[in-house]
Design a protein that fits this description.
alpha/beta; Ribosomal Protein S5, domain 2; 10 helices
């Protein structure tokens, strides 16, 4: 069948978006077109994919190749689509005839040799794949390079498979050779980790501590006013120790945002705390512009 459909993920800010990758082969002069608002990083994947397929033992079809990244109105900029595009070309050209790709999400950048080199924010990708599985109400399997797959395995209720190269990924899909090992879920220390900054450490400030406790219990806003060095920041940093444990789903979402920012790719139960500079403007704190 000259048409193959695969699935991957991208992010708009911190919001995950499912991307459908369609690969079509047709008669005509050999060409390779990528459509669907790909940026330079994705457009350059044509040469990576071509070399990776040839160096992995596949034939590169001498046909007109069209790859569509849907939704077409969403700008896309990630080399993580390399694996899906390469497998799509192999499938559309009949080299992965028996592979069922409908329950898979693919993410991974390819080197010219066909090796899978890595993805950005693997934890965030795993959290997004878990959400996608709930939306589809079916089991979703995530395939990515081996090293980030170990980090993604900290997300529960998700089957994560790590591949070292394109050939291993394709062989697993068609059931040939050594199957890929599903990454074992790594238990996190979500319930046992506590806030390192504890309000119990603060001596004095009884009035301020009582006000913070009241505001925290009632989920109210509170403003701390005082001269520099009076303890406002010290107290604010310890408000998290007054709150109940962070719900697991909230912890996943917060940890995914930290992963996208490049801070950490591990599950963290810590509530976020931000300490903006006193000279910050309103626009710096909450944004601005003509649509505000």
């Amino acid at each position: 069948m000259p048409l193959a459909t695969l699935h991957s993920l991208t992010f708009v800010g911190v919001r995950p978006v499912a991307v459908q990758i369609e690969v079509h082969l047709s008669a005509g002069l050999p060409s390779f077109a990528l459509v669907g608002l790909p940026d330079t990083e994705i457009r350059e994947s044509k040469e990576r994919v071509r070399s990776a397929l040839l160096n992995s033992g596949f034939e590169f079809p001498s046909q007109r190749i069209t790859v569509n990244l849907a939704p077409a109105d969403l700008p896309k900029g990630s080399a993580a689509f390399d694996l899906a595009v390469a497998l799509g070309i192999a499938s559309a050209s009949g080299q992965l005839a028996k592979a069922d790709l409908s329950d898979w999400l693919f993410a991974g950048e390819l080197s010219l040799s066909g090796a899978l080199t890595g993805v950005r924010s693997p934890f965030a990708l795993a959290v997004a794949a878990r959400k996608e599985a709930r939306i589809r109400q079916r089991t979703i399997k995530l395939m990515m390079p081996k090293a980030p797959a170990r980090l993604a395995a900290t997300v529960p209720d998700l089957a994560v498979f790590g591949a070292g190269n394109l050939f291993e990924a394709a062989a697993h899909l068609v059931g040939h050779g050594q199957p890929l090992e599903q990454q074992s879920h790594l238990a996190s220390n979500h319930s046992s980790t506590t806030n390192p900054l504890d309000m119990a450490e603060v001596i004095g400030h009884q009035t301020a501590k009582h006000a913070l406790l009241t505001a925290t219990a009632g989920q109210h806003h509170i403003r701390l006013v005082g001269p520099p060095g009076s303890g406002k920041s010290m107290l604010a940093q310890r408000v998290g120790s007054l709150m109940p444990p962070l719900p697991f789903e909230d912890s996943l979402e917060i940890s995914a945002i930290r992963s996208l920012k490049g801070e950490s790719d591990m599950l963290s139960p810590q509530r976020p705390f931000r300490n903006p500079h006193p000279s910050s403007t309103m626009a710096a704190l909450i944004g601005g512009g003509c649509y505000f």
